[in-house]
Amino acid sequence: MFEHLCILIKDTIVLKAPKKSTLLLRMIVLTFAMVCGIYICSMCMKQISTRTNVGFTNVQMHKKPCEAPNIDPREKRYVHYPNPKTFSRAECACNPVRYFAILSTQRSGSGWFETLLNSHANISSNGEIFSVKDRRSNISTIVETLDTIYNLDWLSSASKNECTAAVGLKWMLNQGLMVNHKEIVEYFNTNGVSAIFLFRRNLLRRMISILANSYDQNAKPLNGTHKSHVHSPHEAAILAKYKPTINATMLIPNLRQVEEMVAKALEDFKSTRHIILYYEDIIKNHTKLVEVQDFLKVPQVDLKSRQVKIHKGSLSRQVENWGDIKKALKGTPYESFLHADYRM
Ligand SMILES: *[C@@H]1O[C@H](CO)[C@@H](O)[C@H](O)[C@H]1NC(C)=O
Ligand SMILES: *[C@@H]1O[C@H](CO)[C@@H](O)[C@H](O)[C@H]1NC(C)=O
Ligand SMILES: *[C@@H]1O[C@H](CO)[C@@H](O)[C@H](O)[C@H]1NC(C)=O
Ligand SMILES: *[C@@H]1O[C@H](CO)[C@@H](O)[C@H](O)[C@H]1NC(C)=O
Ligand SMILES: *[C@@H]1O[C@H](CO)[C@@H](O)[C@H](O)[C@H]1NC(C)=O
């Protein structure tokens, strides 16, 4: 359209210019030409930018015809079609991917739980990524790390293939999660990340596991290597030989502190799409794993782990000063921790 305008302007100049070449007329023509020039220039710019926009839209249209046809509008936010930089999703490019994060505390079975998830061909859980301090130094490094994971570009030993349908990580509450909870909740809600809370009901057992694990870090009874998780009953038996002594004075304040931290995490993250799991429930009831797979919207399979439980059987045989502990917990809300038991 502006080409026509140019011709029109040229004609005007040509028609009006001849003979009566007074200074005033020349000035008017010059000004007119300048205004026209600016106008044409701005039109050109506009067209260039529209054209580029159109180009981008076209590229996206080509790359992203991926829309699951029968998706609940409320679910849309949780369905993604990442386009990784490091590899091609090939024939699964249009398989929807869900983002998740396992939010847990140390020694609550999250390592075991993650191996179960990773035994699924379509699930990729990348481990305790924020155990590395640099990655959690501030919200920018956290967001950058999460973006890489959810774009399927994180390199780890976790099963990863073009047909991943759920991708995530394991994240301990004390690894920058609680400190930056506001920004992280916002990230989860805007990017459609689902939270899987995994806690342990019996916090006394958890405490024993923590003490034993930190003992192992120094003593290393397994051929001089520190192992938080083991794969044979023989190794488990060696690790279980160590019986920690629990400081009975500090026991109740410690248990209460953990309880409060868990309650705060649940409160802080309540606006996210989430599921709450307890280690003991998963051990007792394998249907829980079906619930998890439904939550992640992955095909149901039988999940397996090679890990072997380290501490089993009665608690009384797992600590040095059982008598003190019994006395400390008797008549408190935590008394049930003394008895609660389960069989593998
Ligand atoms: C965040 O931490 C990284 C790495 O420690 C640092 O390079 C960066 O400047 C920090 N950014 C802000 C906004 O503090
Ligand atoms: C799960 O993985 C298999 C094999 O890699 C693939 O054929 C299938 O399409 C995937 N399923 C989903 C829901 O992505
Ligand atoms: C130590 O290593 C040897 C040889 O690799 C192995 O046979 C043995 O079972 C290991 N012991 C433990 C406690 O893992
Ligand atoms: C238990 O912990 C308290 C506070 O840290 C300390 O004062 C006390 O000596 C400890 N008791 C034992 C038996 O270690
Ligand atoms: C096992 O878990 C499923 C799914 O969460 C639940 O519906 C069922 O009631 C549980 N069964 C028992 C015996 O607790």
TrEMBL record:
<protein>
    <submittedName>
        <fullName>Uncharacterized protein</fullName>
    </submittedName>
</protein>
